[in-house]
Every structure is written in structure tokens, then in C-alpha cells.
Design brief:
Elements: E1 6-9, E2 12-16, E3 27-30, H1 33-41, H2 48-65, H3 69-77, H4 84-95, H5 101-127, E4 135-138, H6 153-163, E5 168-172, H7 179-190, E6 195-198, H8 203-208, E7 214-217, E8 221-222, E9 228-231, H9 234-244, E10 248-251, H10 275-278, E11 279-280, E12 283-284, E13 297-300, E14 307-310, E15 313-315
Parallel strand pairs: 4-5, 4-7, 5-6, 7-10, 10-14
Antiparallel strand pairs: 1-2, 2-3, 8-9, 9-13, 11-12, 14-15
Helix pairs in contact: 1-2, 1-3, 2-3, 2-4, 2-5, 3-4, 5-6
Bound molecules: 5-S-methyl-1-O-phosphono-5-thio-D-ribulose.
5-S-methyl-1-O-phosphono-5-thio-D-ribulose binds near residues 140 and 230.
């Protein structure tokens, strides 16, 4: 059965709490927009498209409660800064220029449905890039948990596997939040897709050994020139791929393209609590008071990207969105 991480049911938003996966499959029910904003901030739900869809449902909750929609939208916008899908979805809701709860819910449902359709199209286009029996490297979680279903980079992997079960995935652990080890591994195991989880620092060695035929990653925000923000560590993979002559693909729906910014220098990069680095599973592993720098994302410059796969097909350099 297809994995779903968010559902609108009985007038409330239900989120699969991704902080506890894979150990516990626990759903949380939200009845107000402020709770939804907190859930995005705290990463109960994460992944750029899923954040956008969740925020849209947050607006539906605000409208049902008769809350001030401008306040709700501002509160949701302040939850996380990098994924442009959040702002894109809220812009769509605001463009309705209505406080009617059923109209806002209908738009949220459309955003949700469209995301799934876009991912299926990305999967179809992207699967054509995958050679027979390929070794595929990916980072973070870009699957059903990060979207309305199927996924972006992981959607390409799913679609490629449906055509060729002999592919192998190498999934980066993705320190410090371990979305690769906890979430991507969970999704790949559910779908019986052959894979190995690796420490992030093993990626370049794997390339040198000739085990990787392509790298495919998601994105949180793509600038007009193709510069792409994604989970911290993506940029290092792109540099290593270039050195080894391995194609590097970015997969994202058009809702991830920010047509208002010319290049990646204008992408706001989230900085998160240093405790994500110094503590593992609630246990302090660094010396007390250890200073940290914990950006959630980095920007891969367009010259390191072989192609960007969207629901509209493949975009090759020079990118001009
Ligand atoms: O901090 P996260 O887990 O929200 O970061 C997620 C990513 O970086 C994903 O690669 C990106 O959002 C694309 S998800 C289809």
C-alpha cells in the first residue's frame, strides 16, 4: 500500500509524526493552524512539497475556526525559511481572496492532489535517465514522506525500480537529523527496493570505486539560474560527482522553482539548533558547551547539475526558469 504521511480526515489534519520513525508509527491530529506551524517547525512533517501541502491544510483549519487568515498565513510562513513550496502554497491560498472555509479546503486538496501527479510525472521522466542495473546515490528523504506520495528523487528511484529491479540505491545517512537512515531506509524497505545505507562521509569513496552511475537529489528551492538548495551535504555530493564524471540530477516539482530570485545567493538557509549535532537520541555526545554551526541546507551551483527533472520534463543547462 502507498505510504501517506498526511491526511485530511473528519475536519482535521492528521500527520504521521516523522520524528519517531522508524521506531514508532504515530499519527498526530491537528485542529488549529498554530499547531500546524509548530509541527512544520519541529519537523513532525518535513520535505519541501509536504510542508507546502501541510501549510495549505493549516489555512483550511484557520478558516474553519474563523481565525484571522492573514495572521495564520504569517504564522505558517515563519515556520521554516528555505523550502519555497511553503510560500508557494500559501500564495495560492491567499490568491483565492476568500475566507470561505470550503473554498480554502478545496484549494488545499487540489495542491495535495497536484503534488502527487507532479511526482508521478517526475518519476516517469527521471526513470529514463537510469541505466540498467544502475547504482544510484541519494541523500535525505525525498519520498512519500516528503511529498503527497511517490516522491521526487525517491520517486525517480521508485519508477526506475518498477522497470528494472536490478538497480541498487545507496542512501546517505544525512546527518544530523538522519532523514536518510531513518526515513529513506524505511520507505525503501517497505517497497523492497535493494539499497545500502551509508555514512555521509562514505559517498566519495563509493564513487571512486565505480559503484555509482548517477546521483539524484531533491530540492527545497531552485533559483532561476538553476542553483538549487537542498539538504546540507548535497553540495559536497555534487562536487564529488563532478570530479568522478558522474551525472548529478535534481528532481523537483515546479512548485520548488522560485522565479523571484536570480541565483542561489538569495536563498535563505535555515540554521537549526546546535543540539541536533551535539546530541544523539537525546544523549549529549559533545563536550558540554561545544560550539556548533548547523545549517539545514546548502546550495549546489548550477554548473554542477547535469539536469533538473520536473513534472514538465528535463531541463538541461544553461537553466533559465
Ligand atoms: O529538513 P528537511 O527534512 O525538510 O529537508 C528535506 C530535503 O532537503 C529534501 O531533499 C527536499 O525538501 C525535497 S523533498 C521531496
Amino acid at each position: 500500500m502507498a505510504i501517506r504521511a498526511l491526511e485530511w480526515r473528519n475536519g482535521a489534519l492528521h500527520l504521521l509524526d516523522q520524528r519517531f520513525l522508524p521506531n514508532r508509527e504515530e499519527w498526530v491530529v491537528f485542529h488549529d493552524w498554530a499547531g500546524v506551524a509548530e509541527a512544520i517547525r519541529d519537523m513532525v512533517v518535513r520535505g519541501a512539497p509536504a510542508i507546502g501541502v501541510t501549510a495549505a491544510y493549516g489555512m483550511a483549519l484557520a478558516a474553519r475556526a474563523g481565525d484571522d487568515l492573514m495572521v495564520a498565513s504569517a504564522g505558517l510562513r515563519a515556520s521554516r525559511p528555505t523550502a519555497v513550496n511553503l510560500f508557494w502554497a500559501l500564495d495560492r491560498i491567499e490568491a483565492l481572496r476568500t475566507t470561505d472555509a470550503s473554498a480554502i479546503l478545496a484549494e488545499a486538496v487540489s495542491i495535495d492532489d497536484e503534488d502527487l501527479q507532479m511526482n508521478l510525472a517526475i518519476g516517469k521522466f527521471g526513470a529514463e535517465l537510469v541505466p540498467l542495473g544502475a547504482g544510484i546515490l541519494t541523500i535525505c528523504n525525498t519520498g512519500s514522506l516528503a511529498t503527497s506520495g511517490h516522491g521526487t528523487a525517491l520517486g525517480i528511484i521508485r519508477s526506475a525500480f518498477a522497470k528494472d529491479p536490478s538497480i541498487t540505491v545507496f542512501s546517505c545517512e544525512t546527518r544530523p537529523r538522519q532523514q536518510g537512515l531513518r526515513l529513506t531506509a524505511w520507505e525503501l524497505m517497505k517497497d523492497n527496493i535493494p539499497f545500502k545505507s551509508i555514512a555521509d562521509s562514505a559517498a566519495a569513496s563509493l564513487m571512486a570505486l565505480g559503484k555509482i552511475d548517477l546521483v539524484v537529489v531533491g530540492a527545497d528551492r531552485i533559483a532561476c539560474n538553476g542553483d538549487s538548495a537542498n539538504k546540507i551535504g548535497t553540495y559536497a555530493l555534487a562536487i564529488a560527482a563532478k570530479y568522478h564524471g558522474i551525472p548529478f540530477y535534481v528532481a523537483a516539482p515546479s512548485s520548488t522553482i522560485d522565479i523571484e530570485i536570480a541565483d542561489g545567493r538569495q536563498i535563505p538557509i535555515e540554521e537549526r539548533d546546535g543540539a541536533e549535532i551535539t546530541m544523539i537520541e537525546g544523549v549529549q555526545v559533545a563536550p558540554a558547551g561545544c560550539p556548533t554551526w548547523n545549517p539545514g541546507f546548502d546550495v549546489t551551483p548550477n554548473e554542477l547539475i547535469t539536469a533538473i527533472v520536473t513534472e514538465q520534463g528535463l531541463f538541461n543547462p544553461p537553466f533559465g526558469f
